[in-house]
Amino acid sequence: MQTQLNVSRREGTGKGVARKLRAAAQIPGVVYSKGAPAEPVSMDRKAFEILMKHGGHHGLIDLRLDSNREPLKALVREIQVHPVSRLVEHVDLQRVSMQERIRIEVPIVLIGKPEGVRLGGGILEHNLRQVEVECLPGEIPEKIEVDVTALAVGHSVHVSDLKVGNLTVMAHAETAVATVSMPAAERAAEETAATAAAAATAAVAPGDAAAVAKDAKPGDKPAAKGDKPAAKDAKGGDKPAGKEAKGGKS
What we know:
By secondary structure, the protein is α+β, with helices and mostly antiparallel strands. It has helices spanning 15-23, 45-53, 115-118, 184-202, 206-215, and strands at residues 2-9, 26-33, 36-44, 60-65, 72-81, 88-95, 102-111, 123-126, 130-135, 144-147, 156-158, 168-169, 176-181. 20% of the residues lie in helices and 34% in strands.
């Protein structure tokens, strides 16, 4: 995708100059080039907004710096937006060589309705909406499409599943792009049931607890680990007699 943008050099810099440009429906910007000084420029606001609507911030553009020069290949590197009015306040443009690989963010578009949504009542979650790729400027795709038709509940599409040809995807291979999950209410019900089952398994059986309470005497302390059971008292409280020695000593 290639789109043209006309820009003009601007002599002055600073906040005062930038305010005057914005008041005249212009956007201040800078063009950066490898091995060359940055060039302050300005561009028509309406023309730039049209460029953005056509996806110019995700692809290569023909940058015409003054009308008497040949267009340059460039990328929109950064856009500064006013926090309240949401109007573009400044644009950074990067001149590129068609022979050098670059890195750029590309949008991810999901195609189809997942099986887990149609038949299992699941919810499709679009986890990764754009991804950074490395490629030659002429290979930049407008978008990366992902078919999620066969996706079942509990399953995901990962970065490693993307079909990107000669592009190098910079994100981790196991990063989830899209997931079909069960509705929150059903998930909460399953988690509650699992927690209750685990608690019931860990609890002492009622019969065992009653037996322990019956045998215990007031003031008894639990036996320490490794202690031997106490011997039963002899009748009448006497201690057990030892064996008599034959022919006892006089």
